[in-house]
Specification:
The protein has 244 residues and is an alpha+beta fold. It is 31% helix and 24% strand. It folds into two domains: 99 residues, no CATH class; 117 residues, Glucose Permease (Domain IIA), CATH 2.70.70.10. Strand 6 and strand 7 form a beta hairpin. Helix 1 packs across helix 2 and helix 1 crosses helix 3. The N and C termini lie far apart (42 Å). Bound molecules: zinc ion. Zinc ion binds next to loops.
Amino acid sequence: MRQRLSSEPDRYRGRRRVPTPPRSRYAAVVTSAFVGAGVVALGAASQLPDAKAVNPTVLQNLEEAATTQDALAERSIDVAAASRGEERTTADPKVSEAEAAAQAWLLPLEDYEFTAPYGVRFGKLHAGIDLAAPEGTPYKAVHGGTVTSAGYSGGYGYAITIKHDDGTETIYAHSRRLLVQAGDQVKAGQIIGEVGNTGYSYGTHLHLEVHVDGSPTDPIVFLRSHGVDIKLKIESVMGSLAAS
Ligand SMILES: [Zn+2]
């Protein structure tokens, strides 16, 4: 049996090594990797005895995962470029935690069941995604902004529209109860309403829409490009990394 030169698994042998990048770069890479390859990143992260002593092989894996995700995001949505700019800014250790929190995009619910995707359904565009949760479950603003409408709105039932600084709007529909009013400023993660079954709705759920330039877009794709994975239920890890 041949002698092992290191404790690394064989699959890592002979791979190109990359120099350890500066810390801010590491944070950006890990953030991107979480977006597209949460499971990979989580697995890799668990191999790290200390985030400051990063194994270059792990970094390379994360970088490859991030590159793949970037390519996917570019194909799917234009705002990906803007998002990556944001991530770099946020990963900068000079940015305060408060600023990072203000820039954060988050999941709208602590827990939920993803029940319907964005897309054409019964010959009609389902302009958002459906997240089922028990009646009365509090839901949160996915990003900071200004409430532009909050009230009963036809098929949407009790619904909230928030306009964000980048011009994007998020809409939260079928609520049992609304906890904000038009004109309110809200922060990312602030509880704004309760899940219900009002309007054109079968079953208690939150219907979430994202509008870019006034038109609906797939919230899954949009939020993924902003560090939130609805299907994996992973939020941005920018804040915790920057603070570590
Ligand atoms: Zn829906």
